[in-house]
Specification:
globular; alpha/beta; about 30% helix; 7 strands; single chain; Rossmann fold
Amino acid sequence: MFLFHKITELAHQAVSQVIRAGDTVIDATAGNGLDTIFLALKTGPSGRVYSFDIQEEALFRTAEKLKEQNLNQWVSLVEAGHEKIAGHVNETVSVVMYNLGYLPGASSAITTMLDTTLQSFHQALALLQPGGIITVVLYPGHKEGKIEKEGLIPVFSRLSSFEYTVLHYNYLNKSSGSPELVIVQKSFFSR
């Protein structure tokens, strides 16, 4: 029996350790809505989920899934890039999830980009409450994904070890383009 089959499942396991009912959380990349649904189930109706995407199709897919499960009352779908989270979220958050790359089943020409992901990540750090986590699923198997990984890993590596714990998970026995996960947890002693 495997503990997990996918990197995204490992991200969910990590988030489950810190998220509580009533929390405010962010899905920085709505995509097909799987992380948004997961977060909405964990926060419950007393919580608030902000879900961002630049593609109307992604938000439509997410909205349909939320409606099917009657979870849409506490989820705000925001048609904006994740680099705009600070303009929409004015409170601390316990979790920020990123699933970078492109929308599965849609054009791979529309993808997350290093510059906007960096902007978003720094905003997420500023919103993160002590003990909170950020999960970043990287997809280095395509051109922009490789650029994002090569640009983000040094940023993650330079975070203060007093303020943050940073873990990097990747498959050692799969192709170099396989998904990877970075988890950043803010220290309980941070301001």
